Amino acid sequence: MRRLFREKMLGSARSRTYDIPLDRGAGSGFLILLVLLMTFLAMLALSSSFVLGAMTSRWSSGLENKVTIEIPATNSEGETRSLAEIQAVAGRMKSLLGNHPAIAQTEILKSEDVLALVAPWLGEDLSLAEIPVPGLISVELIDADAAVIKGLSERISAIDAASRLDAHEAWLGDLLRFTRSLHFAAFLLALIISITTVTAVAGAVRARMAMHKAEVELLHLMGASDEYITRQFQRHSLLLALKGGIAGTLAAFAGLMIVDWIGGEMDVVLLPDFRLHVLQIAALMAMPLAIALIATLTARFTVMRALVRMP
Amino acid sequence: MIKFEHVGLRYGIGPEVLSDVSFTLEPGSFHFLSGPSGAGKSSLMSLLFIGRMPTRGIVSMFDQNIAQLGRKQLTAIRRRIGVVFQDFRLLNNLSAFDNVALPLRIQGKPEKEIRANVHELLEWVGLGDHMHSLPSTMSGGQQQRIAIARAVITRPRMLLADEPTGNLDDEIGFRLMNLFEQLNRMGTTIVIATHNESMIERFAHKRLILDSGRLSIVEPKSWVRRKIEEVTGK
Questions:
Q1: For A53-93, what is each residue's pLDDT tens digit?
Q2: How far is CA B138 from the centre of its chain?
Q3: Domain boundary at B129, B155, B181, which?
Q4: Residues spanned by the domain of B116
Q5: Residue B160 — φ and ψ, nearest 5°?
């Protein structure tokens, strides 16, 4: 009976976590907090990147093969044109361009539609009599080739010198450049986060190794392989990084929900929908795992390097 | 066989703490290592358990020149050496059981075998009732017995002990010396660093004497010779 009791107790003795007391002493809390913050920032950077992508695709979608012809409210001499004059020019253009081989479809926007477009800036209660409104023709091309656009521009100028063709390139290019720089900033932030995590984990592991130098030496002298000793530090770093990572993920999701709620309250038309789809959520969920992996590999590399100095 | 040939050791750019040390430990031999404080005993012990590499000379362990061995081979050699440190070097976060089991776990032995061996050995050193105690809650003598049990649990080819009976009463000290002798009879090479002259006198084994980093080897006096000296006073 006594022996049986002992055997049971021996079983519990095996449940020790580490040979080296890595889970004791100060410093673990700091690393968890740091990983929490890094995960939080990384997730915000990644979700911003997703939102930017959605915004770019929403703004640019359908514009690839579309151009707009603008018939200004004033003619080339600077005289204000009547609505009938603008409609006449628009009609001429439509009939002329209708047979163009590069054009799939043309549509003259109604004056009410044009007013609706400017309403957010000029107000809802405008009448066509109060304000000169330009004419707009939406043209869908078969292929938005530069030569085609140039040829079209020339033909439009021949019909009406004041009218011009807007291929959306200028503002779309600016938008794409802007989103590219934001993507680059997100990449830089991810790089900084990785470097910070590596530096912090390496520092923490080196500090732990210095703190437990005697224990590490003892295991080494007993014939523990480098792999055996390294595994202990690796496991410790992985657990701390996972704790920090999970906390950081929860904090980031809470932050994103708040931002989504604020966006919903503001009801801003130009801002994209903040909802993420499954793959994006999976990518965000993988973030703490990636940071934990970085922490584990850093711990492994740091300990291996230190152990090589031992005979 | 352990062989030291013209071995020297210095720390950094300091003077040599061991100079031109040459000796051979035959398999199954028993040696005491003695000498005054600062003579280089700890340094010699650290070379024997490959805690350091010599700055000159050749150290051969089990017929292999350690300077020519890779890390994995050195690890394999260390597993054939048991060490009892003067300051015990027990891991305070582990129970007595886990401390003794550690060398077996490092070697990847199955848990069933570990339990049986550790249980038996702790019973033998009189700590069967303290298996789950942490070293910090135990007396110096008990800690020393755990350190000894840990050093012999793997049945090493060579056992090095630094003042192993220092904190023990005479009876337990004698029992442990008998354990060392028993291991020695089974073929384990034993080196015990000690200041305990009565122990050295009582167990007739060769003596390595270090003085100012230089080593001399003294053969044991026979029991009869010692008795004659005691009676005649010569």
A1: 777 777 766 666 778 888 888 877 777 878 788 888 888 88
A2: 22
A3: B155
A4: 90-155
A5: -115, 130
pLDDT tens-digit readout, A261-286: 877 766 555 555 666 778 888 888 88
Overall domain count for chain B: 2
Q: Do B75 and A223 touch (CB under 8 A)?
A: yes
According to the model, what pLDDT value does residue B233 have? Answer: 67
Say yes or no: B92 contacts chain A, CB-CB below 8 A.
yes
Tokens of B33: 């290592």
Inspect the interface and report whether the beta carbons of A10 and B131 lie closer than 8 Å: yes
Residue with the two structure tokens 């070379």: B47
For chain A, list the domains and their CATH numbers.
Answer: 21-60+172-308 (no CATH), 66-167 (3.30.70)
Lowest mean pLDDT among A40-54, A156-170, A186-200: A156-170
Q: Residue B29 gets which letter from DSSP?
A: -
CB pair distance less than 8 Å for A13 and B132: yes
State the CATH number of the domain containing residue B167. 3.40.50.300
Chain B, residues 3-62, CB within 8 A of chain A, namely: 49-53
- Per-residue pLDDT for A143 more than 80? no
| CA–CA dist A8, A101 (Å, integer) | 88
Put simply, the answer to whether B72 touches A225 (Cβ < 8 Å) is: yes
Q: Rounded to two decimals, what is the model's pTM?
A: 0.73
Q: Are B205 and B33 in contact (CB under 8 A)?
A: no
